[in-house]
Write a structure and sequence with these properties.
Elements lengths: L2 H13 L3 H17 L3 H18 L20 E4 L12 H15 L1 H6 L7 E5 L6 H12 L3 E4 L1 H4 L6 H13 L5 E4 L3 H4 L9 H15 L7 E6 L7 H4 L4 E4 L5 H11 L10 H8 L4 H17 L7 H18 L3
């Protein structure tokens, strides 16, 4: 397309209030400038497009609908409007780095497509319960400014032959028409090994269907996110279908301190003995540390106190540890 035609298309797009068409043409110009060696100009155009999208609230190249699923999907998809930002989720540096790279690909997918590449969109979260997988999924959706859809496996999986695969087809049709983060939680219920001794023919068909749907072209660049506490149960063929596999672990000492600090606000907490608190919290999941911290705050509010001591928080951490020990006691 010549410069004159590009200018004409830009004017027409503006007249029709078609911002996405305008942005697309601008990115084509940026790509052409980059090929000519004008990298600075190309970067300036791309940065201007990103800024314009941010101001109009259209960071996604596909229109985003936050309306709830209807019809047959209403019982299988639960829409959550993300309220937790990814930057507010306490994660290890390694995990944060991988997530930032993934979100960068998603946010700059228009640039990748200019060069014939597609962004990563299939992600697997593995880790123990309470390690932050679901919260991270919400943070990912928040960062990408798209809705989070949680697939209800109890509504998806049925005992009738062929029905589960048909429902799965509906879900993936929605993935291809409505941009979002689609979370399959407790994914081992769908993706268990096909050679598992307690497996049945119907679930093997469901898994085969899922593998097929995962390979299909996704025109919306929706994120398909599976989370499991038991990665060893997943079929090896399924593991190969994911672009990114991220492992969540128990919080480190540094993460424990960040979690406690973030969740005892707005209470004052002078002279906390962090060594004792961190030692008491070791072995607890991220969710347990958060819950213990919040419990300490609630008790302080009921006691009409405006600050927390080490003992206040320590007591709650020890209670959580006792609950965990009782739960996993032989």
């Amino acid at each position: 397309m010549s410069n004159a035609k590009q200018v004409l298309e830009i004017v027409r797009s503006r007249a029709k209030d078609d911002d996405e068409r305008l942005f697309s043409i601008a990115l084509q110009v940026a790509a052409a400038e980059a090929r000519r060696g004008h990298k600075t100009t190309a970067e300036e155009i791309r940065a201007a497009v990103d800024e314009a999208r941010d101001r109009t609230g259209r960071g996604a190249s596909v229109p985003v609908s936050f309306s709830k699923p209807r019809g047959d999907l209403s019982g299988m998809l639960v829409m959550r409007e993300p309220r937790v930002a990814l930057k507010d989720v306490v994660l290890s540096n390694k995990l944060s780095s991988k997530l930032n790279l993934f979100t960068r690909e998603q946010q700059k997918r228009g640039w990748l497509r200019e060069h014939g590449k597609t962004p990563h969109r299939r992600v697997l979260f593995v880790g123990p319960p309470g390690s932050g997988k679901t919260m991270t999924a919400e943070g990912l959706a928040h960062t990408l400014r798209i809705p989070l859809f949680v697939i209800r496996l109890d509504a998806l999986i049925t005992r009738f032959m062929g029905e589960t695969a048909s429902k799965l087809r509906l879900v993936f049709d929605e993935v291809n028409t409505r941009r979002g983060v689609y979370l399959f939680d407790e994914f081992d219920a769908v993706g268990s090994r096909r050679d598992s001794t307690n497996d049945v023919a119907e679930m093997r068909r469901v898994l085969n269907s899922f593998l097929q749907f995962m390979e299909e072209t996704n025109s919306t660049d929706s994120v398909v996110l599976a989370a499991t506490n038991y990665p060893e149960l997943l079929d090896k063929a399924l593991l190969r279908r994911f672009d990114v596999v991220l492992e969540f672990t128990a919080p480190s000492d540094e993460q424990i301190r960040k979690l406690i600090t973030a969740n005892i606000r707005p209470m004052k907490h002078p002279r906390l003995v962090w060594k004792k608190l961190i030692e008491a919290a070791r072995g607890l999941s991220q969710a347990e540390v958060v819950q213990a911290s919040e419990d300490a705050v609630k008790t302080a509010i009921l006691d009409e106190k405006d600050q927390l001591s080490t003992v206040d928080i320590l007591q709650r951490m020890e209670e959580r540890a006792e609950m965990r020990d009782a739960l996993f006691k032989d």
